[in-house]
Design brief:
Layout (H helix, E strand, L loop, with lengths): L1 H19 L16 H20 L1 H37 L13 H19 L4 H23 L7 H8 L11
Helix pairs in contact: 1-2, 2-3, 3-4, 3-5
Length: about 180
Amino acid sequence: MPERSGLYVASRMNFALARRGDAPRWMVKLNRRGVPARAILIATSIGFVSVIADVISPDKVFLFLLYSSGSVALFVYLAICVSQLVMRRRLEREAPERLEVRMWLYPYLTWFAIAAIVVVIAAMALVDDVRPQLGWGLGSVAVVLLAYRLKVRAGSRSESAPAARLRALGPARPTRTSR
């Protein structure tokens, strides 16, 4: 049963990404029954390729998945922290009435989280046992950044996604919280 739920989630994620313009647009097309068959086909194909790769080289595939996931999570949280600093500053300047969620100890807590993540990444670089994990994570991040750069260079979007999403939110609702 978990295999089917994973396939469902992966296909719907492919469909949602394509609808937002972050995956190939041809995955948005639905069949007559309203099923994103192309997105399901891609998710299924990647599943088959993963199983074949695991059969051919079980140690390397498992280690790649294990090693890359931990350090990639650190890079994701680092990006979230930096994005929060940048986007909140922009939101406070352009539309402060839209700022509904106010974080306590902002920006100090965000800067503390950034410093802590950088310390963990630096420690990973210095400890022999986890250095491969950092290398695989950096490689994964590099592939994602390269894909994003190629997408931007291809001109698939005329404006940045965060700015477009902010405008799409519409007028702000009044908030009762304070800074």
